[in-house]
Write a structure and sequence with these properties.
Layout: E1 2-4, E2 10-14, E3 23-26, E4 31-35, E5 40-45, E6 48-54, E7 60-66, H1 90-93, E8 111-114, E9 124-132, E10 135-142, E11 147-155, E12 162-170, E13 176-187, E14 194-200, E15 208-213, E16 217-223, E17 232-240, E18 251-256, E19 262-268, E20 274-280, E21 287-289, E22 294-296, E23 300-305, H2 308-324, E24 337-339, H3 341-344, H4 350-363, E25 367-370, H5 400-408, E26 412-417, E27 421-422, H6 427-431, E28 451-452, H7 458-474, E29 479-482, H8 504-522, E30 527-530, H9 540-543, E31 548-549, H10 557-570, E32 577-580, H11 594-601, E33 605-608, H12 617-639, E34 641-646, E35 654-660, E36 666-675, E37 684-685, E38 695-702, E39 712-714, H13 715-721, E40 723-724, E41 730-740
Parallel strand pairs: 24-25, 24-33, 25-26, 26-29, 29-30, 30-31, 32-33
Antiparallel strand pairs: 1-4, 2-3, 4-5, 5-6, 6-7, 8-13, 9-10, 10-11, 11-12, 12-22, 12-23, 13-20, 13-21, 14-15, 14-17, 16-19, 17-18, 18-23, 19-20, 27-28, 34-35, 35-36, 36-41, 37-40, 38-39, 38-41
Helix pairs in contact: 4-5, 7-8, 10-11
The chain binds (2R,3S,4R,5S)-2-(hydroxymethyl)piperidine-3,4,5-triol.
């Protein structure tokens, strides 16, 4: 097996294609090899080997995705494909890397096309490949037409995360319609006991962790309406019943880097092969390629861990901070912010915002963000979206007076925008009613009284870029909260020929990425939050262009524990914004202490969203202390390794998380109690991930450890003996910090 490119920095795949050639730099690329004798390819990263080979029929078969093999292990060549029966032919029962709809395929195709003749049969065979230190590009070609497909592979050495995408290239002399296209098909080892973990949700209830056995048939996770969505998130993790738990056992996991409509199908075919196919959602999809045109898919990132669900998410988090996020491998730490939304809603004005900013500054807040209501005729959610000029009644001095006061108080200034939307009651809509996504002559269904601008149109794309660019040029704005408060309806593009209208599904998202990239290019210090009425647009595609995400509008600190736990399975706490808001909270009318609210929010990126005009002196003192404490642990919380010690799922009365810094010199433990009863004993919590030899001193941020707890002990002591934190009552919380002495 030839091995090239070890430990070399490289650029991975061009993820977005076309307008946004967003090459994600891998920290260092894995070992990449090809054995010409067996025609087997392999990629080796930390703890992972991925291999595939070309069989005697020219098909590309999957050979291994799992734990590491020795570099000199010879993999057997791909076996000769054979039919299972007259109904189940070879292409449907062989684990293939990428399979087109053709030759009687009955499983989920990776690609389905139509030719002008009406032929919809495509049979891809291996053509050639290029092997570089950056990865593998393998080309396939249809058996009788000039249709080519490129499969791209690269792997991040440190995390073993594999990046896969595909490109279809129409070199025929006529158009070719792509009806379905995935980034990849990935095959798991044959097995009967798989369980699929995935995330579902809805507004104010995102990040619900689900698990179901993988039985014969298909499990379909998807979004149909032009955005990532919160009904399903494009992430999954597959374990084995009885073998996989939080700390142990194999986990195959993956996430699609795409913020438009997507689908991930997990199948178990008739002979029991489990496979994942992930890419554009074929529902309502059609992308016509002219001769010479290509369509590229987003990247599907796939990983493997032997250390259970916890190990899988730690790999995913490390990969996000070292490869995906802006500024990777050293993305900037998230500042403590204040946000005005829950304090004032649309009733923002210069005097009121300055009063809040002055109070926020005394707490140690680093960034003051004015939310919705500052522009156009925006006094409620019925008007103004699209008119990105400052409302002169609310801000007679423009934004200048507020921003200079915020800056004078030592904070950065951030602003809410929702650039992809328009209210029918706006100057923009009155001038350009044709700019929205719509079907000619059909109703334009509103969501939150707004319509979606057709960002796929170049004039709309340019308008959005220009309005935001002007805003950023004219004002000292460090941060945009980029909101998106509805999904699509009537997905038409009337200015295009009917057969090209569905290009909307791809071109809209590409233009969104292009605008974000261009704004960042023109304003290199700008940071952006991805928000979609909460967590409706969190995925690895948007995370490449935004610094943080708003996971949910639900700010109830108890509800959040479960959502944050679900979120952390796929995404890192270091991008997850969490605000401290009012008690009782608006969602459940639940009352909790200020300390409980702080500790819940401190598990992610801390923000404050309460109306500070309602706070007393004691609240200010508590908040000031905890903001300062947060700053002392933020590097650990935002960049460290997360261990979910006690799960809040399934009606658990308790939960606990531990984050250990990359150097293992600091660890932070948060623990929460829903309700104590029957004078229950306090459990010992055993920590994980510490340096067993190092001596750690423990101190409490909130709450106290049991009286006989040593002040200093070894990592081994904290991991094997544990620590007891007595909590009694309802909605109690405590936090400890362990520092190496
Ligand atoms: C939805 C967001 O999730 C909220 O935080 C807030 O920004 C509102 N939109 C404003 O309309």
């Amino acid at each position: 097996m030839g091995v090239t490119g070890l430990s070399r920095r490289a650029a991975c795949l061009s993820v977005m294609g076309g307008l946004v050639a967003a090459a994600l730099p891998m920290r260092s690329t894995a070992s990449v090899g090809f054995d010409p004798a067996s025609r087997v390819f392999r990629l080796d990263g930390e703890g992972v080997t991925y291999a595939f080979g070309i069989d005697s029929a020219g098909q590309v078969q999957s050979l291994h995705w799992g734990g590491p093999l020795a570099l000199d292990d010879q993999l057997a060549p791909a076996p000769k494909p054979s039919d299972y029966s007259g109904f189940d032919r070879a292409n449907s029962v062989t684990p293939l890397e990428f399979v087109a709809f053709g030759g009687g395929l009955v499983t989920e195709p990776s690609l389905k096309v139509a030719f002008p003749s009406g032929v919809r049969d495509l049979v891809l065979k291996y053509l050639d490949h290029t092997l570089t230190s950056e990865g593998i590009t393998l080309r396939m070609k249809d058996i009788s037409t000039e249709v080519y497909v490129e499969l791209r592979y690269s792997m991040d050495k440190a995390t073993g995360l594999l990046a896969r995408s595909a490109v279809v290239d129409n070199r025929t002399k006529a158009w070719l319609r792509v009806d379905q296209m995935a980034a990849a098909t990935l095959n798991l080892p044959f097995g009967e006991d798989y369980e699929v973990n995935y995330l579902t949700g809805r507004w104010a209830a995102e990040w619900t962790l689900q698990k179901r056995p993988l039985e014969a048939g298909a499990t379909v996770l998807e979004s149909r309406l032009g955005m990532t969505g919160s009904q399903n998130n494009p992430w999954l993790a597959i374990g084995r019943a009885g073998l996989t738990d939080e700390d142990n056992g194999p986990v195959w996991f993956g996430a699609l880097a795409w913020s438009g409509a997507w689908r991930i199908t997990v199948e178990k075919d008739i002979v029991g092969h489990p496979r994942i196919t992930a890419g554009y959602n074929p529902f309502d999809f059609a992308y016509r390629l002219k001769p010479g045109e290509r369509l590229e898919t987003p990247v599907f990132y796939a990983g493997f861990s032997h250390d259970g669900m916890g190990g899988a998410s730690r790999r995913m988090h490390r990969f996000q901070r070292s490869v995906i996020l802006p500024g990777a491998p050293e993305p900037k730490l998230r500042p403590v912010l204040y946000n005005s939304w829950e304090a004032t809603e649309f009733a923002v004005n210069e005097v009121g915002q300055i009063a809040l900013a002055e109070k926020a500054a005394t707490l140690g807040v680093e960034r003051f963000v004015m939310d919705d209501g500052w522009f156009g005729k925006r006094n409620n959610d019925h008007a103004g979206l699209g008119d990105w000029t400052v409302n002169p009644e609310k801000f007679p001095n423009g934004l200048e007076a507020l921003i200079s006061r915020v800056r004078g108080l030592g904070m950065e200034f951030g602003l809410w925008v929702e650039p992809e939307m328009v209210n029918p009651d706006s100057q923009l809509y009155r001038a350009h009613p044709d700019w929205v996504i719509n079907f000619k002559g059909r109703p334009r269904t509103e969501g939150r009284n707004q319509l979606v601008l057709n960002l796929a149109r170049s004039d709309v794309r340019d308008y959005v870029l220009k309005s935001l660019d002007l805003l950023l040029r004219d004002n000292d704005i460090a941060f945009l909260k980029w909101d998106h408060n509805r999904s699509w309806s009537e997905p038409g593009w009337p200015e295009r020929a009917p057969e090209d209208q569905q290009k909307l599904y791809v071109d809209y998202t590409k233009n969104l990425y292009w605008i974000l990239a261009e704004l960042r290019r023109r304003h290199p210090k700008l940071e952006i939050e991805s928000c979609a009425g909460g967590g409706g647009r969190v995925d690895l595609g948007i995370m490449h262009l935004t610094d943080q995400v708003w996971p949910t509008d639900n700010t109830d600190p108890f509800d959040r524990l479960k959502m944050q736990d679900g979120f952390s399975h796929a995404y890192m706490p270091g991008v997850m914004m969490a605000w401290v808001t009012a008690s009782p909270n608006w969602v459940n009318k639940r009352a909790t202490s200020l300390e409980y609210r702080f500790l819940s929010a401190m598990q992610g990126c801390l923000g404050i969203g309460d109306n500070l005009n309602h706070w007393g002196q004691e609240d200010f003192a508590t908040a000031k202390r905890l903001v300062a404490e947060y700053k002392s642990i933020r590097q650990t919380v935002q960049r460290g390794d997360l261990y979910r010690l006690i799960s809040p799922q399934g009606g658990s009365e308790r939960s606990a998380t531990l984050t250990v810094s990359e150097t293992k010199r600091q660890a932070v433990l948060f623990t929460f109690l829903h309700s104590s009863s029957t004078f229950d004993a306090t459990p010992l919590i055993q920590l994980q991930g510490l340096d067993p030899q190092a001596r750690y001193a423990v101190r409490s941020l909130v709450g106290a450890v049991e009286a006989d707890t040593p002040k200093i002990a070894s990592g081994s002591y904290w991991m094997h003996h544990g620590v007891r934190i007595p909590l009694r009552g309802d909605f109690q919380a405590a936090a400890l910090v362990l520092d190496v002495v």
